[in-house]
Amino acid sequence: MLYYSGFTRRIGDVDDGSTVTDFLPAERARGITIQSAAVTFQWPPLVAISVAQSEAPRSQIPHTVNLIDTPGHADFTFEVIRSLRILDGAVCILDGVAGVEAQTEKVWAQASSWNIPRIVFVNKLDREGAAFERTVREIGSRLRGWPAVCQIPWWVGANRRFTGVGDVINLCALKWAEGGDGKTIEHFTLEALKKEDPELRTELIKARTALVEVLCGQDEALLEKWLECDDNSLAIPAQAITDSLRRCVIGSPGRLIPVFAGASFRNIGVQPLLDAVNNLLPDPTERPDPEIALGPLNGNLSDLLQGKLSIVQSGTKQLTKRPVTPKALVSNIGGCALAFKVVNDARRGVLVYIRVYSGSINRNAVLWNTNLHVTERAQRLLQMQASDAIEISHIQAGQIGVIAGLKHARTGDTLMSYAGVNPKGGPPTPLNSLQLRPIEIPPPVFFAAIEPHSLSEEKNVADTLAILLREDPSLHVDIDEESGQMLLSGMGELHLEIARDRLVNDFKAKATMGNIEISYRECVISKTETNRVVFDREVAGKKGKAGCDATSAPLVETTGEIPYTEYRDGNAITTRILLPSEIVTSEEPSTLSPELSLDSIQQALTNGAVAALARGPRRGFPLHASHITLTFDFTKDFFGPDTTTAAISSAARLATQATLKGGVEKDTIGLMEPVMNVVINCDEASLGAIVHDLSSARGGHVLSLENDADDISGVEDRPVIDTKKIYAPPDPFASGRGGVDSAGPGQQRHITARVPLKEMVGYLKHLRSLTAGRGTFVMSVDKFERLSGPREKAV
């Protein structure tokens, strides 16, 4: 696309690592896209205009195209989500050999949730085993939309070589020169095809009839045109069909799917696809109005700018005599934009990618960040050309651009330029919280530990991770309080591997990625004997003496509160203080020294027990679900002025440790492990394999199996399309696989289960292999559960 639009002088190639938009070293080494890249170009090129623009079709009038190249790998799904959030239209590229893959279904569902108009380009038709017919049928069965075949492949010779496409809309054929750069194209009319390839001509007429039939079912205007032409599909003008396709694509995205064909490795079919982008996909003014939130008030941006939303100014002091009307408030908004991506560029510093939704963002404008409530100045504005950039003076509504050097902006923040903005307080009260619909971040599913090489390196690694997290919010960093490990979590193994590469190679942090330590717990299984300990020792040169009784038992859930009980970290600590009878009867307890009140004794006993519970007697894991009862008897355990709170605390700690040690000797201390709530989403076909794997191999309990009522796939509400009614040209060497998938991917199912965390480490890889890449899962911590005999041995 960049080559034909005159943006580059040579065609980049994934295999040679010379592509424009895949410019990261990791992308070139692996031959895949890892981060989305933005490029702006003109199509058609400004040089190529000869037709008077008034009567020219859309595809011949130069349009500015902002192109974002997004990844296809499941691990980088967040890159797709944040790009989809700001797009007006999308080209979905399918592999002509593999057909509709698992990740295509996911991305299609994400695009459906944003109502994005889409067209499909079936690529790689030059490869062995390419099957255009099967792919078109899969579009119907898996993406639940009617495929409108706008181009059919042109196969030539005995070995059916792919040389061009038949254009169904314009009723002609286009043939590309063998081995060229794709700029030499031969054009054949229906007449010329009688000689050149009568078979293609017959198929082209069939395809035209099928296309008109599909469109008549969706668009009444074309139906009228068809009736005017006496039901003759070939007599309908090409422009009428293009207009009808455009109405269907923009009016109900995803219901009708225009399909185009080509092979980008042989440079076939790219220019007609660019024409289709101009002809069929919407410009920014044809998209629904952006949704906004103003505190509790929800509405549309254009309603706000036209003063239709009733906003009430609150909390501001009126210093002028003339009150400010809502219309005057709104008229000061110079521009409104959404930051959808943050990148750390080695040469240019922090680059914030924005999409402007109203007005324009000018160079040196003061921008108010409505999420963080800070002002920043847009000192440099750039138009990105993948890894290169051009300085520009302003970014207009509908355009994508970059602001260099913002310190605070993150993905999903709304930036607003406001005339006469107060640097500290921002715009007047209701407007300073104006937010465009934010970008949702999917929960992480894959975890690994990051280990700095030394203590001195820890801060550097943490700072570098903070930079990575600002760039990619789908990464999460947690410090595990148990093991002290720094845990990095993301969307998959490759995602974390790339994050580690950037950490070590780009930011030169000294750290390695290791396995996760699972934090186990210990618990009391049955009641232990009472242990009495008398603490008698000097503490910091001061004599201390106190006694205490302790006993431990498993924590039983009770409905009411137990008196004098504190709950800490999943344990209960009950303190009983026995006072001599004469103290109880007198109004003021006389034998208590001034430093020792009943409250302070109780607090000291609790603190001592908490310290003892932090390390269990069996393996040094903290205790959980245990109930400790401490008794402090004044007649036995109080030793006058020597009994201080520190001594009582130490006595409680030693007594608790002693009673727990007694439990180990009698084998009444068990181990517990964290158990996760897991919700797995899969199709009917792989349900049995997943349930069997969870319950037999992973020691999990399946709680429920549900049909997908929540419309997870985003297309479930659409009726299942009968693939027999879909038109697709026959494949030259059809292997009979065309009908294999005609029933569609089947019902989506939810499996809710509880599985030990140990078994969920690295589960994503396993799930993808069980479900042919279609399964997804989310998990959250449920609670700690006691280990069974065989699992305890394994640990």
From TrEMBL:
Question: In terms of domain of life, where is this protein from?
Answer: Eukaryota
UniProt keywords (A-Z) are: GTP-binding, Mitochondrion, Nucleotide-binding, Protein biosynthesis
Q: Where in the cell is it found?
A: Mitochondrion
Q: Which Pfam families match?
A: EF-G_D2, EFG_C, EFG_III, GTP_EFTU
Gene Ontology cellular-component annotations: mitochondrial matrix
Q: Which residues form the Tr-type G domain?
A: 1-285
> Which Gene3D superfamilies does the UniProt record give?
3.30.70.240, Elongation Factor G (Translational Gtpase), domain 3, P-loop containing nucleotide triphosphate hydrolases, Translation factors
- Which HAMAP family does the record associate with it? mEF_G_2
Question: What does it do?
Answer: Mitochondrial GTPase that mediates the disassembly of ribosomes from messenger RNA at the termination of mitochondrial protein biosynthesis. Not involved in the GTP-dependent ribosomal translocation step during translation elongation.
Protein name in the entry: Ribosome-releasing factor 2, mitochondrial
Q: Which organism is it from?
A: Oidiodendron maius (strain Zn)
* Upper lineage: Eukaryota, Fungi, Dikarya, Ascomycota, Pezizomycotina
Gene name, Swiss-Prot/TrEMBL: MEF2
